[in-house]
Write a structure and sequence with these properties.
With 256 residues, the protein is of the alpha/beta class. Helices cover 48% and strands 15% of the residues. α1 packs across α6 and α4 runs parallel beside α5. The structure holds NADP nicotinamide-adenine-dinucleotide phosphate (NAP). The site of NADP nicotinamide-adenine-dinucleotide phosphate has 30 residues, from α1 and α4.
Length: 256
């Protein structure tokens, strides 16, 4: 028996990249999956692929910005497979946002998908977890949550919000039987990082990233940052005085 055997998982952002990789990996280990994303055709294709491998899964096309749609999706998943054991709030978008030409619409879109979308996902599953006294909330945040990065105000702001949001949940849920895990990945090869001209340090293969995320969830880690090389650099950045951080960080843009 694996940690995932018969666990019902509500997974957002399942149509590509990390979400799709997680679906395949935890499905292989016996999880029953509710797959959320906007692109219904991609989800249907993934459900077919999973079913041929013996994984039980349903497609739940929805936009994470729509709290009602997510609640309905969670209801459908419960009807099909029973109470939801694990939420993986993974749906997200990247954005290059140079501050001198800031576009409020773009900032709002990134925050609405990355942060409000994750909050909507929690709202769709948490009341039932609390009443049952068991559950696991997982946020896919980013190493970009820890400090500001060049040309990344919208993304860093949204991910800092995600990490702080889930940390607050972790405190509130300590005695409620609900575990909270915040994942802070570095760079992983997915459509989100594809095509970037800037050098992405310690860029990981998708499979390696997925395995690390799955392991951290299984262990019920409160927070997990990887790969260790980049996580160490980021941690050093957190204790640097601002003048030194600004000098170093402004010379290392990961966005062109
Ligand atoms: N790749 C990296 O290096 C990296 C590093 C750190 C953190 N992350 C985080 O990991 C998560 C997954 O990213 P990825 O690299 O796998 O990117 P990706 O391949 O572009 O996947 C993003 C997923 O989010 C879904 N999504 C986007 N907007 C949505 C919306 N409004 N409603 C529902 N689903 C939505 C997309 O599906 P649809 O387009 O079909 O809706 C897609 O399934 C993101 O939160 C990202 O910030 C990635």
């Amino acid at each position: 028996m694996s940690y995932w055997t018969n666990k019902v998982v509500f997974l957002t952002g399942a149509s590509s990249g990390i979400g799709k990789g997680l679906a395949v990996e935890v499905g292989k280990q016996g999880a029953k999956l509710g797959l959320v994303a906007r692109r219904a055709a991609e989800l249907a294709e993934l459900v077919n692929e999973l079913e041929t491998k013996g994984t039980q899964a349903i497609a739940l096309p929805a936009d994470v910005q729509d709290a009602n749609a997510l609640r309905e999706a969670a209801d459908q998943l419960r009807l099909r497979f029973g109470p939801i054991d694990i939420l993986v709030a993974n749906a997200g978008v990247g954005a290059t946002s140079p501050s001198t030409v800031l576009q409020p619409d773009q900032v709002a879109r990134v925050v609405n998908i990355n942060l409000i979308g994750a909050a909507n996902s929690v709202a769709a599953v948490l009341p039932e977890m609390v009443s049952r006294g068991s559950g696991h909330l997982v946020a896919i945040s980013s190493l970009a949550a820890y400090r500001g990065l060049p040309k990344s105000a919208a993304y860093c702001g949204s991910k800092a919000g995600v990490s702080a949001f889930f940390e607050s949940l972790r405190l509130d849920l300590r005695d409620k039987g609900v575990v909270v895990t915040i994942i802070h990945p570095g760079f992983i090869k997915t459509p989100l990082t594809a095509g970037r001209k800037a050098t992405l340090p310690f860029l990981m293969e998708l499979d390696d990233g997925v395995k690390k995320i799955v392991g951290a969830i299984e262990k019920g880690k409160k927070s997990y940052a990887f790969p260790w090389q980049l996580a160490t650099v980021v941690r050093a950045g957190m204790i640097m005085p601002n003048f030194l951080y600004d000098w170093i960080a402004s010379r290392n843009s990961y966005r062109e």
